[in-house]
Design brief:
Number of helices: 5
Structural class: mainly alpha
Number of domains: 1
Oligomer: single chain
Order of helices and strands: HHHHH
Distance between the termini: 60 Å
Strand content: under 5%
């Protein structure tokens, strides 16, 4: 059996932390990255998290998490842009 490389353990841990809802800046500090840009690679890996984020950006959807959709003034402003 081959032992996992230290980088693989760091990478896997960072991905699990991100999936558990730990913010990227905390993961950056935990990994010792100076720049958040270095840590952003973990945010780009998980396709399920990407799909959820894109779904939250869908302005056409309505629901309790989008109370601004019911504000006709806000919608008129947005439609005028």
């Amino acid at each position: 059996m081959v032992a996992p490389q230290p980088h693989v353990i760091r990478h896997t841990s960072a991905c699990h932390l991100l999936q558990a809802g730990v913010d990227l800046n905390t993961i950056r500090a935990w990994l010792g990255h100076v720049s958040l840009e270095t840590t952003n690679v973990y945010a780009e890996i998980d396709l399920e998290m990407k799909a959820k984020a894109i779904a939250l950006c869908d302005a056409a959807a309505s629901g309790p998490d989008r109370p601004w959709k019911e504000d006709k003034g806000v919608m008129a402003f947005l439609n005028a842009i």
